[in-house]
Protein: uroporphyrinogen-III C-methyltransferase
Amino acid sequence: MGSLAPLLPGTVALVGGGPGDPGLMTVAGRAAVEQADVLLVDHLAPAEALAWASPDALVVDVAKLPRGAFTPQERINELLVEHARAGRRVVRLKGGDGFVFGRGMEELLACTEADVPVRVVPGVTSSVAVPALGGIPVTHRGLVQGFSVISGHVPPGHPASTLDYAALARSGTTLVVLMGVATLPDITATLVENGLDPTTPAAVIARGGHPDQRVVHAPVIEIAARAAHLAPPAITVIGEVASFAALSAVSAATADVVSHTLEEVI
Structure:
């Protein structure tokens, strides 16, 4: 079934909403939202995209907020199946891409095990898009030949962590840390303890893709302290490419000065 084919009654579409700006959603994602009878929406999904939905559509908030509102994944799976079995066209809308730390495969399996037709509509993953929106490429010719995307939801040494920080520290690739605001001091300290140069450039991009996006850049040994005032959602980039954040900051400042000057002239 093509991603732009009509969404049939009794079908679930797992839609990635991209990094925050509704303009960065895919055409197929918008088409699914427009056809939905029911939308199960995460807090990181672009809220403005709901304006595309039918006024008769049921919108269900299934947020998982850190230390806040929480809808168990098992209940989300049940809702997808229940609404589809009732003959509704169901859209599961979340931020970024649902298959990058988004539990999208869990939802797909829940639907297939219940014999509910399910369609995947990939989204622009925030792990690449948010750095780009902050002026940072995750790769750059002659500088770095790869990147690693890791979850920082638990700190190094935690029983639930499966990451080899020693290997990451010496990988020579860009490190992109998602869900790592609270654990950033532990993550950066562990990387340095395992051999990462403490002067390695780093940057934190908060609220990427939103009008209030903020970018903080500093050497990796300092980045946690410099970015301590930023709140989730935020993504950290560690590696030589993060030095481009400084260039972007200068460009943004220059553009702001030019804008104000033009306003004064006009």
Notes: The first strand starts at residue 12 and ends at 16. Confidence is low (pLDDT under 50) at residues 253-266. The chain has two domains: 12-124, 127-250.
